[in-house]
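Deliverable D4.2, example record:
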Amino acid sequence: MDAQGLPGGPIEEAVQLGGGTQNILLRFTRGGRAYVLRRGPRHLRSRTNEVLRREARVLAALDGGDVPAPRLIAACPDENVMNGAVFYLMTPVDGFNATVALPEPFASDAALRHRMGLDAAAALSALAAVDHEAVGLADFGRPAGFLERQVGRWTAELESYGALEGYPGPEIPGLAEVAGWLEANRPTTWRPGIMHGDYHLANLMFAHDAPRVAAIVDWEMCTIGDPLLDLGWLLATWPGDDDSAAIAGPLGLAGGLPTTDELIARYAERPAATAGRDLASITWYTVMACFKLGIVLEGTHARACAGKAPKETGDLLHSVTLGLFGRARTLIKA
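Output generated by the structure prediction step:
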């Protein structure tokens, strides 16, 4: 911090923040300024440091724009400073996670909750509107063949779980049907852009004083790909009339949220987000999101079967996977 020219003095008011299952978030003050430090878990995984470097690079690229995101203060890509861990400092976010708690006046005002939902779509369209090459991210991902790789990439991921002893294999009704439909109906044209990679309500912080997104958080899956898959991810995880409302926590249970058609319409209001992108294919992106997220969550179920994750967590996420594939099949039939 001293080398970066940041205010000096003792580190004070340090407190660990919740909200993540892997990375460590620590809020503190120094020299009259507040910071949040983000680093990997105590036991680093093989790709943790590279993921943190990528996160810091994206946040730096977005700084100064209108995408609601934590602002990067300084990053330390050197693993030797903190016992092998890459870390960065960012601005604290003044907001709340509506899937954890829903304060007043939002809890009792359906109109405010409706506007919160619309702003979730608006914040995503702001990200999709960013020219990734203009902000220095031309080499950040592999956009060529991105859509063509998706089904094979995630099918292979699902097959890899078979190496876990005790996992009986994927018992997912409609798996082959959904995969086949995705391959047969893949969009033929699209425009690359910055993808958050895990865009849903749990990764949004809302402002206390207005129904708006204060910050999009948890950028560990960000890349350069097709931003419409982020919109599909939001729609795939959007609270509906089924168990998905409970998964979205207090906001989902409170109701009053916009419909998926309203989300799409709000997203489409920003021309720079939709230019060169075919919103008529949004069903494909939503089904793809169901397919990918379902397979990701099935990984925890497989690890639970092998005794490497809590059984109750594995069972819960397997049920979510079944719900996602059920939603995908409903969309296909419709």
